[in-house]
Amino acid sequence: MSVWRTHVFTSLPVFVFQWECSWFFLLCCSFLLLLVWSYFWLEARNDYNEFNWLLYNRSAIWKDGTVPILATTLTGFTYTAFLMILALCHIALGQQLNLFWIHKIVVLAILLSTITGVVSIDDFWQDEWDIVIISLQFTGPFLHIGALAAVTALGWVIANQVVRMERSRLQFVTLVIYVSILLVLYLVPLFISSPCIMDRSKLGPRPAVIGRRGAPMLAPEHTIMSFSKALQQKVTALEADVTISLDGVPFLMRDRTLRRTTNVGKLFPARQDHDASFFNWTEIRSLNAGLWFLRDDPYWTVQYMSEKDHNRTANQTVCSLTELLRLAARTNRSVIFSLRRPPPQHPRHQLWVSDALKVIQRSSILPEQVMWTPDWYRKKVRAAVPLLQQTSDEKLPVAELKERGISSLTLHYSQARAQDIRQFSGSNVSVNVYPVNEPWLYSLMWCSGVQSVSSDAPHILKKVPNPIWIMSADEYGLIWITSDLISVATVIGIFIFQNYHLIRWKMSGMRSYNPEQIMLSAVVRRPSRDVNLMKEKLIFSEISNGVGSTDELSVYTENGLDAYACDDIMMPARHASKL
């Protein structure tokens, strides 16, 4: 049974017609808002783990918050898309829209919940909106073609309504709005800019991949196993977050506490919420750093692990900076790390930089293989170990970078604009971008000219030998013009066909008119020219057959059909009698 009711024999009041139009408008708003919301979460897949980590920092409970969001979004979008298709079909057939009350409640609930979700994300994860703007640089040319195809196809419905509508202001407004939307879509490519629209000969070398916290999708982050898995994926460097222990030992830990990635709640329950830097190295070393990965399965990858890797994961411990540097030196890889300063009451609060430098100097790694990120005491660090690669996570002018001796930048992808990257590269300042976990973002950064990317998914980026797409400006221009010409020809053809069909229908004679067709039009708020023509031809045909129009109309009245615009029939009848 259709979710839309179609009234046939009863005329609807004007306010009912307007009420149903209002619900159709709400349905369109729900569909379009859900379309944007779905696109946001599709592109935000690159940062799902960041979202879950933010949730953990607020609730202290690890859970994959993306699952219920994606499930409800998919359900709501499918539901509203189905209603939209049915609504457009009803409009194309000239039927009155009257949505069942249960569907009105669901549509309103979907609209309100989506608005709530957008407001919540804007408050909780505001920076993530940047992914939408950045992704449009990659998907823009294809979204434009899809939107153009959809609006062109919608021309069939628009033409059907405009051609059969009485000449009125509504007809003019409808046509103007539709043509305006088409013109906007025809000109949108003038404002589409993408690094991937370039000459193939200017494409730079493939960006190097850095294992961010190792390969955290394949093994527990910041463990020797994780870094070993990253090396198996041919990464060129290893990236880590470093904290200083109570007794001055640098170790790898992303969180402020040990609660999420160790069993500190079991061994030290009274101290599980304490800062990780207030544990000495002996206590830290006694913790298990792998069981949480098997329990929480943060990337949904545990099911694909071999039994050997499963057992190895269960026995992982917290990794020290010394162990990481030894692994990098043994495999001839570089290391980049961020250093977190202990709290003011910590005994190593003033010595944290010295503790890290001592470990670097005592390890077997070459100084030029270490990329130093902290800005604290940078002059002191350069004096102590001159060969360290100075890097920064702050986007500064080239002159200032040169003055500080910084030769590379580590930037979030939202800060990595193509023109800035070209400027830095021209000044011999390399750019590393993080986090890059999706092939489309890796392709975009490749076309932008970055030298390296930090990734949680080196095993995925390893399978991207070339940018997903790249085309010259001439090729894109040809596609743009061809698409516009096809759309113009299609829309003109649709309107010509609709007009031809209407003229042929009017010329087909009285055989195509019957009382049922006239009564079907009774639900229309304002009868169209076609309806008036049908009514007049029916009256004249009845008069020519010797049937009194008033007698015939009395039959309809006796059957309870006098409510379907009796005046519209009586006036032509009286006119025929006078003739």
The main sheet orders its strands as: 1-2-4-5-6-7-8-9
The percent of residues in helical segments reads 40-55%
Total domain modules: 2
Number of E strands: 9
Low-confidence stretches: 6-15, 516-529, 547-579
Radius of gyration: 34 Å
Strand-residue proportion: 5-15%
Subcellular location: Cytoplasm; Endomembrane system
Pfam families: GDPD
Protein name: Glycerophosphodiester phosphodiesterase domain containing 5
GO cellular component, one term: plasma membrane
Outline the structure in words:
This protein is of the alpha/beta class and 579 residues long. The protein folds into 2 domains: 14-198 and 473-503, no CATH class; 208-462, Phosphatidylinositol (PI) phosphodiesterase (TIM Barrel), CATH 3.20.20. The protein is 55% helix and 7% strand. The chain has 23 helices and 9 strands. Strands 1-2-4-5-6-7-8-9 form an 8-stranded parallel β-barrel, surrounded by 4 helices. Strand 1, helix 7 (224-232) and strand 2 form a beta-alpha-beta unit. The longest helix has 35 residues, at 130-164. It is elongated, with a radius of gyration of 34 Å. The two termini are 48 Å apart. It comes from Sinocyclocheilus grahami. InterPro entries: GP_PDE_dom, PLC-like_Pdiesterase_TIM-brl.
